[in-house]
Amino acid sequence: MLCLNNISRSFPGVKALENVTLKFRQGEVHALCGENGAGKSTLMHIISGNLQPDSGTIVLKEQPVIIENVLQAENSGIAIVYQERSLVDALTVAENIFPVNQPKTSFGLINYKALYANTTALLEELQLSHLAPNTVVGKLSAAQKNMIEIAKALAKKPAVLILDEPTASLTHDETEVLFSIIKKLKQANVVIIYISHRMAEIATIADIVSVLKDGVLQGTVAADTPVDTIVKMMVGRALTASVFSSNTTGNVLFSAEDISGKGFSNVSFRVHKGEVLGFAGLTGSGRTALAKAIFGDAKYDSGKMFMNGKPFRPGHPADAIASHVAYLPDDRKAEGLFLEKSITENIAAVHLDTTVYNKKENERLADGYIRQLSIRTPASAIHVRKLSGGNQQKTVLAKWLSADPELLVVNEPTHGVDMGAKAEIYHILKNLTAKGKGIIMISSELPELLLLADRIAVMYQGKLVKILAKQEATEEKLAALASGIL
Amino acid sequence: MYKGIVYILVLFLFSCELPPRSGSSTAGTTKGEKKFITADEVSPDEEYVMVTTAVNLPLYVNHDQKAFLAWGKKTAVKVSILGPSEWDVPTQIATIEQVIPGKPAGLLINGTDPGIAQVIKKATDAGIPTVVYDSDIPNSDRHCFIGSDWYEMGRLQGERMAKIIGGNGKVACMGILGMENMEAGFNGFQDALKKFPGIEFIGKYDDKANVETAARITADLLTANPDLAGIGGFDSNSGPGIALSVKEAGKAGKIRITTVDAEPEHLALVKEGVIDYLVGQKRELFTWLGAQFLFDMRHKTMPLSADDASAGVVPIPQTVITGSIEIDKNNVDQFMQ
Amino acid sequence: MKLKDRFTDRVFTLGGSILLLCIVMAIVFPNKFPTIDNFSQLMLNLSIDTIVAVGMMVLMIAGMFDLSVGSVVAFAGGMAGYLMYYHHVNFVPAIMAGVAGSVLIGFINGWLIARVGINPMIQTLAMMGIVRGFALMLSGAGIQNFPYEYTVIGQSKLFGLQMPVWYMLLVVIVFAYLTKNTSFFRRYYFIGGSEKAARLSGINVEKMKVWAFVISATLAGVAGILLSSRLGAALSTSGRGLEMRVITAVILGGASLSGGYGKIWGSFLGALFMALINNLLILSRVSGYWQEVILGAILIIAVGIDQLILKKMEK
């Protein structure tokens, strides 16, 4: 159906793709995996017409084609769901799903009746019938927006559907819905290209898996190939499942007593020195709201918090920082980093309470952390926009480490970070606990919670349902608690 | 380090040069020093500069600038017109300041605001023959002022108004309140009307030199005073605004209108019979004669002593009032082309 | 600094352009341009704009701007003039009243923008009208005849240059030093870079925004006092269109409307560049409305070239 023959593409200094040949068949879910920078995105951009290959050919329905732009790709039946959203918050669901191809009345005006009817039909298919077509997209949750993004792609009735990390912000239930849709599309003979980091998903939904590394195709294997083998193909080495020993102590570092605020209520828990307290739950279960309240970025209405036994009432992030609390936000690019500033300046951001801006000292700090956390960059003066996801995340970590926090709240610390950097971040966090720091770790990736946390708290609809000790926690149990089943 | 800074500060303090106190005139201090620049030869390169504000105002372009350019052509010298396109007095000042160092043969300055006195002084101190036109600038040491007498223009309007309404009825006037020349005009207008006990002056109104505002005020006046006899206008847009409203009310010819300026739209309204009387300024004379004075001063056309520049004698008139142009339906055709 | 970085540093490219322009002008107008008189006049004319531009640069580094500065210039001079002329207040309290009024205007702007959340463009646009109205009420058709002491401030000369030039240099040097070396002013670069990230790094963004508007309005107030002192008159048309001129200068000087960039020296060079163009037009006797056409074109060319260089380098 769709064949890529010997596709190469290079950017200054980088060979993004080298002689990649892939065949995508109708009614087959073809997973594509590889670390960040392996060439997956470049490949997608070439298929969707955003980029042109330097050499090689694309054959669509036995016809060699040159896809010059996105419009042409769409007309050839190629639809893509990007990781980055392409929705306009101020417009309705229906208008977002049909941005150009709206049904028209005989006067050439937009036929809203038909538009809404078409939208409703699509939403039903996606089991989102509780959303009205005239809802404004800005009011939706991140997961719902993601589903609308998928609906937008499906509205084009594509022959080739590309999904780029579609489940990144979906809940368990929504993922199930997505999978059932994918199965239906499969029966309808649609070519599905599925890009994901999550090995478990790939095993569930994909038929075959192609692995890219450094722009070179490592091979195409059946989806039931053991995960270890695939990971080995991706990183070029076996990822040893490291086991971390616990550093937890009996001394309480932080405690929350019955705190309530917008998005969470009556939450009580303690964090000990040297402990990693994991927080599991679905998107919107109140974990981020709780973290922001602890960091003083959101108001909490009632309850008490204590830091080292002293009452702790942060009204602004500056208060929290003064009490040695730090927060690594989930939205790294918008909240964690100054993308257009250097690594040095990003670290300096938490040292602006002094009178004099000490550039030399900040540079020294930055150089130190670049070595300590092995941030891969030519210099500390490089703008963080140019760094990879993993190195960006390490920069945020470096910023907070330089502030010397006692309690570090990390929200999705490995989101969008490649395998190698993930392992490094785990080590960094664990090393902190060895120094007696406490960590609150919010994560949607259950394996990493099970790996790092000493205890795991589960939240559901704003309530802390249960705190499990490491020994009693399993993925099934956590998932069940997080979905409100147990 | 600190000692050094103190030394520098003291040095600064001593090298500070204070501005001259006002009143302490520099005239007649040093013997033999020339008070203004003169030249024996007329050079085609010598330049006369006009600096105004709102350079593209039609009234300025069609009268002041046109006459000035014509004078330049006739005299075979260079003439330049400078200034901001908006009504922006500080920029007019900045422009004059930047022209002064180039020492033009003469400066012709539109007296837009009393605040420009200082820069005019700067020009005369630099020895540049300087003429202010349109409105006089007090305390400026300008060599000559040439313009209209606004009190006289108001008086003429008032007298004509009294005549055409037969010495009886209610009369109002409008213009820009607070502007010196307008206020003089209002006074002349009222003084003329005072001689007629049958006339009731009901007030002066601010139309902000805006046609719509003038029309709105007129409409309000007509509603409040159904027996209104006449209205006098004092800025360029008063007349057209008043006429518009009077025509809309169907009272053209019944409400008598006198106003200033003789632009084509004013003339058309006189022809139409809506406006009874116009008193125009002789703006062409401001700049033509003003420029000629500058030329005469520079080239010692009519010396009053052996060396006027050294003697401190300004060989041109101190103040010239050009008088007014009176227009009504009897002579309006001579102004329309 | 590497050569490549130099070409994207506006202080460097603009400085080069200014030098080039000066050389060209000196060749074309050998008798009029390179004279001490012309130079001191040029500096004097740009001094007021530059003092306002420094405050605007601080705001634009933080990703905001203030349209009310031109009105504040007229207001501060009008306020001082009104008190001295009509109420015979001594010049010192009169100046203090003018500046204090400006500080208050800045505070109201900042408070409504940072705490209430009004968009800076809307807030300062409204404030521009309100303050212009107050300025007209205070100075009416203009106030002259200030006390001699008041005119000393703006009309004294030091080494042949009128005092506003020295005040301008002082403001530029002090602010350039402060924005480089103090944490307080560094914070604005972070707020402009990402407001959210700045807040989550412990910067009190709201408070800093209020301060930025206070600083900008205070400098505008000082500029207004200097302008009226040097003109010897408080004119109601003072500062009309100044806000746009200053924003143009600051953008020419390397600021970005989205914030995070800019150097104080850039605002000085931007204003200098515009003053040179203005000087060029006056020396070549080009009529006034061309100035606006030419400055508009230069702004588009400068920013356009920047974007082209950036695109080229990213490839």
Number of domains of chain B: 2
User: Looking at the chains present, what oligomeric state does this protein adopt?
Assistant: heterotrimer
β-sheet strand percentage of chain B: 15-25%
Helix content of chain B: 40-55%
State the helical fraction of chain A: 25-40%
Strands in their spatial order, largest beta sheet of chain A: 6-7-8-3-9-10
The CATH superfamily label of the largest domain in chain B reads Response regulator
The overall strand count of chain B is 13
What is the CATH T-level topology of the largest domain in chain B? Rossmann fold
If you had to describe this structure to a student in words, what would you say it looks like?
Chain A is of the alpha/beta class. Chain A is about 35% helix and about 25% strand. Chain A has two domains: about 230 residues, Rossmann fold (3-Layer(aba) Sandwich), CATH 3.40.50; about 230 residues, Rossmann fold (3-Layer(aba) Sandwich), CATH 3.40.50. Chain A has 17 helices and 20 strands. With about 325 residues, chain B is an alpha/beta fold. Chain B has eleven helices and 13 strands. In chain B, the strands form two sheets. Chain B has a six-stranded parallel sheet with strand order 3-2-4-5-6-12, sandwiched between helices. In chain B, strands 8-7-9-10-11-13 form a six-stranded mixed sheet, with helices on both faces. The longest helix of chain B is centred in the first third of the chain and has 18 residues. With about 325 residues, chain C is mainly alpha-helical. Chain C has one domain: ABC transporter involved in vitamin B12 uptake, BtuC (Orthogonal Bundle). In chain C, β1 and β2 form a beta hairpin. In chain C, α8 packs across α9 and α12 crosses α13. The chains are: A alpha/beta (about 475), B alpha/beta (about 325), C mainly alpha (about 325). Chains B and C meet through β1, β3, α3 and α4 of B and α3, α7, β1, α13 and α14 of C.
